[in-house]
Design brief:
Blueprint lengths: L3 H7 L26 E6 L2 E6 L5 E5 L7 H14 L3 E5 L3 H16 L6 E5 L3 H7 L1 H6 L2 E4 L8 H17 L2 E7 L5 H12 L7 H22 L7 E6 L3 H14 L3 E4 L5 E2 H17 L5 E2 L3 E2 L8 H12 L8 E4 L10 H23 L7 E5 L5 H7 L2 E4 L9 E5 L2 E6 L4 H18 L7
Parallel strand pairs: 3-4, 3-11, 4-5, 5-6, 6-7, 7-8, 8-9, 9-11, 10-12, 13-14, 14-15
Antiparallel strand pairs: 1-2, 15-16, 16-17
Helix pairs in contact: 2-3, 4-6, 7-8, 8-9, 9-10, 10-11, 12-14
GO molecular function: 4 iron, 4 sulfur cluster binding; 4-hydroxy-3-methylbut-2-en-1-yl diphosphate synthase activity (ferredoxin); 4-hydroxy-3-methylbut-2-enyl-diphosphate synthase activity (flavodoxin); iron ion binding
Keywords: 4Fe-4S, Iron, Iron-sulfur, Isoprene biosynthesis, Metal-binding, Oxidoreductase
Organism: Verminephrobacter eiseniae (strain EF01-2)
Length: 441
């Protein structure tokens, strides 16, 4: 009787020439992006989006913008977590009046992160009536579905573009499936009814999103706005819908693109859905700035959405924000929770220290740390890391070998393994990355 391997080898089409190819397996990597590059500025701080720039992380506050102090504090927290752009709601005259004070508070705190104004319905009036607000922002978010209907649409959209031209600001033309341009959608529905083979309703909606975004961008360019200063987004809440729309959007224009799954949800659902959608697009070279729109759980910090966004980019190899900690999931070999406690302690320690280390130790974000729970994969993973520890599993000798730069450096024993390894990591960072921070003449 033939064994399983023989059956697999002789099944037609199951394993032809590629199975016997001597060529190496291709290394996976995200495809290159091809968008134009926009520049957002505040003072001497410049943040580029698109072109050869890294994929940028942004977030949005959930404070009442009228409360300038609370909003400024949250903006700084988001920026320190890794958000390179922060959006704030500007929905009332009181909110518009508060924007310059928010910017002033941030400047006093030494935080130069660019602010984005999120406008709907009345942005044309707020940007006109509050020039200090228009000047304090670095970018305006315009939703073409919420700038008026009929004759008012073009006029009010034009007023917002005029403000961007006057103050030399970038804009994001952000279309959302929950607030589509109803006149455009009606026209597309009429055209679809006349097709010999009508499109599905969802396909008409896709076209409405894309046409609204690109058409609005072309209108802004016709008014004099530099196309390099335009960023587009077409947000939906379905993973497959978002992928379909952005693939088409990327084929049909070269504006910088903002990615985000709108209304992604809470906790695991929001995290998984956002990751599933964004990872596919980023791997295909689509997307120049991202936001993970998580609904915070009660008491949860707003910065959680920033952490998820940075983890997505770091997992894909597109960016490095904080040192990575490799830790095994645990099994029957690891009845002790020591490796779990140590992994969390190290991860928290690295994240807490990053705002200081970013300035003091250039390159520290590329550090790789391993905290493993038993002898099976522990030594191997620790050798692959810059610094790693293999803790004893169930029934193993109470010893924890430490590996530094691929070589076994020492063995820790006793009740203070966690604190001793903590100190080793800190000394390793200072020794390796501190030298890189030495001033050059």
């Amino acid at each position: 009787m033939a064994n399983t391997r023989d059956l697999l080898d002789t099944t037609p089409g199951a394993c032809d020439a590629p199975c016997r190819d001597d060529a190496p397996v291709a290394i996976a990597a995200p495809l290159p992006r091809r968008a134009r590059q926009a520049t957002l500025a505040w003072g001497a701080r410049l943040v580029t989006v698109g072109g050869a720039a890294p994929v940028r992380v942004q977030s949005m506050t959930n404070t009442d913008t009228v409360d300038a102090i609370a909003t400024a504090i949250q903006v700084k927290e988001l920026a320190q977590a890794g958000s390179e752009l922060v959006r704030i709601t500007v929905n009332t005259p009181e909110a518009a009046a508060a924007v310059p004070h928010i910017r002033e508070q941030l400047d006093k705190m030494g935080e130069s992160v660019p602010l984005i104004g999120d406008f709907h319905y009345n942005g044309h009036r707020l940007l006109t009536d509050f020039p200090a607000c228009a000047q304090a922002l670095s970018k305006y978010r315009i939703n073409p579905g919420n700038v008026g209907r009929g004759d008012k649409h073009d006029k009010q959209f034009g007023q917002m573009i005029d403000a961007a031209l006057r103050w030399n600001k970038a804009v994001r033309i952000g279309v959302n499936w929950g607030s589509l341009d109803q006149d455009l959608l009606a026209d597309l529905m009429d055209a679809n009814s006349r097709r010999s083979v009508p499109w599905q309703l969802r396909q008409v909606m896709y076209e409405a999103l894309i046409s609204s975004a690109i058409g609005s961008a072309r209108r802004a360019e016709a008014m004099g706005l530099d196309g390099d200063q335009i960023i587009l987004s077409c947000k939906l809440s379905g993973v497959q819908d978002l992928i379909a729309v952005y693939r088409a959007l990327a084929r049909r224009c070269d504006y910088a693109l903002h990615l985000g799954l709108t209304e992604a949800g809470m906790a695991t659902k929001g995290t998984v859905a956002s990751t599933a959608a964004l990872a596919v697009l980023l791997q295909e070279g689509i997307g120049d700035t991202i936001r993970v729109s998580l609904t915070p759980q009660p008491g949860q910090a707003r910065a959680q959405e920033v952490l998820v966004a940075t983890e997505i980019l770091q997992a894909l190899g597109l960016r490095a924000f904080v040192p990575s900690v490799t830790a095994c999931p645990g099994c029957g070999r690891t009845t002790s929770t020591l490796f779990q406690d140590l992994a969390k302690q190290i991860d928290d320690f690295l994240r807490d220290r990053m705002p200081v280390w970013r300035l003091r130790y250039p390159g520290v974000e590329n550090l790789r740390v391993a905290v493993m729970g038993c002898i099976v994969n522990g030594p191997g993973e620790s050798r692959h890391a810059d610094i790693g520890i293999s803790l004893p599993g169930t029934g193993e000798a109470p010893a924890a070998p430490v590996f530094i730069d691929g070589q076994k450096a020492m063995t820790l024993r006793g009740d203070n393994i966690a604190s001793e390894f903590h100190q080793l990591v800190e000394r390793y960072i200072e020794k390796r990355f501190g030298a890189m921070a030495a001033p050059t003449v």
